[in-house]
Design brief:
Length: 177
């Protein structure tokens, strides 16, 4: 039997597992509708994270965001593999899995965490006008009045905020523009 050597990466992955495995399992279970597949998804997520540990950069995103990003790909892979095989259980169970893999709630949650992380990385002035105009749907004139700045400045800040968000998301690995 070979001796296992632990590196700092191993310790970090173990700590990440302790901190996030339960939450990852919950999302995998809701997405796949199968406890066994959800466990497999979490295990594969951490195997991939361990193998790619040198690519993780805290300055680009939190460990949680990175793990959920990996999990999303694992869930998609498992769902595709499962849909290519004949169902092992009843037809009702198979139908539930097909519906669950199309679940937009998981994707929306993951995207919202990534957007939230990207918003944290841009300047406060840009973040504020973007939240007010884009997410709250307020008119530029109203936001300008509340902030005591010209409407053109609000428009300019929104423009540069969107550019900054795009840059941050690209750094986080997004390619869905």
């Amino acid at each position: 039997m070979r001796a296992v050597s632990f590196t700092l990466d191993d310790v970090a992955i173990r700590a990440a597992y302790s901190a996030h495995a339960g939450e990852l399992y919950g999302f995998a279970y809701r997405s796949l509708g199968d406890g066994g597949l959800a466990e497999e998804a979490v295990q594969e997520t951490f195997v991939r994270a361990w193998r790619a540990a040198e690519r993780f950069d805290e300055q680009l995103g939190s460990m949680r965001t990175w793990l959920f990003s990996i999990l999303r790909h694992v869930v998609i892979d498992l769902a595709r593999a499962r849909s290519a095989r004949p169902p092992l259980a009843s037809a009702d169970d198979a139908e539930h899995v097909v519906q669950a893999t199309g679940d937009d709630a998981f994707d929306r949650a993951l995207v919202s965490w990534q957007i939230e992380e990207a918003l944290r990385r841009i300047g406060a002035d840009h973040r504020r006008v973007l939240v007010e105009t884009y997410f709250r749907g307020r008119p530029y004139a109203e936001v300008a009045e509340d902030l005591g700045i010209p409407e053109g400045t609000v428009k300019s800040r929104v423009y540069y905020a969107l550019k900054a968000i795009r840059l941050v998301l690209e750094e986080m690995g997004w390619d869905e523009f």
